[in-house]
Amino acid sequence: MPDHDVKDLSLAPAGRLRIEWAEQSMPVLRQIRERFAKEQPLAGLRVGACLHVTTETAVLMTTLKTGGARPALCASNPLSTQDDVAAALVKEFDIPVFAQKGEDTARYYRHIQAVLQTAPQITMDDGADLISTLHGDERERLPGVIGGTEETTTGVIRLRVMEREGVLAYPIIAVNDADTKHLFDNRYGTGQSTIDGILRATNLLLAGKLFVVAGYGMCGRGVASRARGMGAQVVVTETDPLKALEAVMDGYQVLPMSRAAELGDIFVTVTGNSGVIRREHFVRMKDGAVLANSGHFNVEIDLEALGALSQARRSIRPLVEEHTLPGGRRLYVLAEGRLINLAAAEGHPAAVMDMSFANQALSAEHLAKQGRTLEKRVYGVPREIDREIARLKLASMDVQVDELTPEQETYLSSWTHGT
Predict the structure, then answer these.
(1) 418 within some domain
(2) CATH number, domain with residue 250
(3) What is the pTM of this model?
């Protein structure tokens, strides 16, 4: 059995069943696995992954291993690990896993160090904690890294800063930016799973509530759409005028957070930034307001400022903390301000993660073949990979599309055809 740190290996049989259930909704990754089994494009490569340890991630890990890789996995969030899945990966699939749901910060970073001690040649990140640790405390391992991938918006933001500052030591493929990732995972996955997490944690009725969504990127669009579908009145807050204008055109009311704070019943942050909801907003909120975050890190709600304001705190339900403010008003923070969709629910449905993790698998293959020739930059997923994933997904859904005729191809490639 490989080196590991999971909560309870006796959970492995239950975890394996859940992995099998997820796999049924991941036909693209299954097709990639079949090819990987024959071609072995990752033969012998050590892959260090810092991802949410979920059933869908398990399908990705087994796909990489089938392709010849030697993966090791740790969690990218202290509350996102599914302990039965972690146990199954170790006991049933012989994959080193270092992750426990609810781990403290010290153990979280010990687990990252454990993955780095396997000397990965390809890294897979969700939030860039693995790569930032590698660039900080484990720099001696950098020469052995061929390249890496990044799963989420927050991580891509951090990595582009590293590129601009000239400190990025190896090429990264921004999986998050692939159309078959952010148009579906971020929008439909985050939208559904965020609502799922809020409902599991609170059992509130959304119909008739005023629901504030901070941020109108793809994730925010998904959350806003699903909240409106549940009967909520949706208000969007934004700093980007183009996204704010799009929200208005999509039929939402757009307000600054200072005004939305006075009106909202439920607040969800999905910006990738810090201090989105702050002291100046807490003091305006009505009694009973619920605060949740679906951005990667727990910095979007200023919990330190809220704690300083609070006269009393208590856990009133699992993953629901009540803060009593001066005057008796109560605010409720869900899942410690961490990713509500993974802390209180099961994360994105397997059907959308199928495409996201297909991008991860094929980007790893691309790095294995081309990584040593790439500059130390953040790259998009090659367009041919994006289109192939879309084609495979459509085929799995029995959806057919038209093909361009030779005449149409000629027309599109010409500048002389006009009216």
Answers:
(1) no
(2) 3.40.50.720
(3) 0.91
